[in-house]
Amino acid sequence: TRRPSGVETNQHPDRRIDVVSLYPKDMNIYGDWGNVLTVMRRLSLYGYDPVLHEYNQGDPWPDHVDLILGGGGQDNGQKKITDDLFVRADTLRALAADGVPMLMICGLYQLFGEYFETVDGTRLDGIGILGAYTVGREHRMIGNLVEHSEEFGDIIGYENHSGQTFLTGGTKPLGRVDADGTGNNGTDHTEGARFGNVIGTYMHGSVLPKNPRLADGLIRIAAERRYGAFAPRQDDQQTAELRRIDDCAQHARDVAAS
Ligand code: GLN
């Protein structure tokens, strides 16, 4: 459990937000750790007191959870964590049903679905929080990815996966891919998944530094669930820093769109 450097403990007990990073040792490919850094930094700039819990296999589960972030991984990284993921499946399902916001990238997106059948035919069962199943193909889907989401606007990032994902039941896509990239499967123009406050996506990049609106969407839900409202409390310096960060992200977005 740690706080960002420079932040003293329990400065504002009424502003604490508990963030869980799920399997950072095994599921953290293509810079997905940047999502954790972004959420922690933005929470601090909004005047919250973020506390990070890194959860790896066999670790104790934190007492309180406001937001969960999980990254991608190679097929063998996914194989390594599935047993432990099933140990935590009921807890994760209960938190999801309770509305805890979660963002799962690529490898963990697949394992939050129903199953992932790898390209060599191994079937990895998922924990079924998202209505999505994935089948590995020889041909990898690699490259820049741009999608349009009604809730979060244009989302930009980078994809690299062998699995083709198909959505089922009441699970909706996160966005629609028109021209840039493949998305879930290359045939139905969908990208990612959303059920309740749980989001799965193939967006690496990392996605949250480039897409502040998505980052703030997760932060807002976390704050509202815990304290009844999202109530930023920032001084001029924090406001200026947020603006500077958002300008950088906008620049990356303009380049991706051009
Ligand atoms: N191993 C999975 C696949 O190739 C996920 C890859 C990833 O997380 N980038 O489909």
TrEMBL record:
Gene: gatD
Pfam families attached to this UniProt entry: GATase_3
Higher taxonomy: Bacteria, Bacillati, Actinomycetota, Actinomycetes, Bifidobacteriales
Chain's role: The lipid II isoglutaminyl synthase complex catalyzes the formation of alpha-D-isoglutamine in the cell wall lipid II stem peptide. The GatD subunit catalyzes the hydrolysis of glutamine to glutamate and ammonia. The resulting ammonia molecule is channeled to the active site of MurT.
Reactions accelerated catalytically: beta-D-GlcNAc-(1->4)-Mur2Ac(oyl-L-Ala-gamma-D-Glu-L-Lys-D-Ala-D-Ala)-di-trans,octa-cis-undecaprenyl diphosphate + L-glutamine + ATP + H2O = beta-D-GlcNAc-(1->4)-Mur2Ac(oyl-L-Ala-D-isoglutaminyl-L-Lys-D-Ala-D-Ala)-di-trans,octa-cis-undecaprenyl diphosphate + L-glutamate + ADP + phosphate + H(+); L-glutamine + H2O = L-glutamate + NH4(+)
Pathway: Cell wall biogenesis; peptidoglycan biosynthesis
Name of this protein: Lipid II isoglutaminyl synthase (glutamine-hydrolyzing) subunit GatD
GO terms for MF: carbon-nitrogen ligase activity on lipid II; glutaminase activity; transferase activity
Organism: Bifidobacterium boum
Record key words, sorted: Cell shape, Cell wall biogenesis/degradation, Glutamine amidotransferase, Hydrolase, Ligase, Peptidoglycan synthesis, Transferase
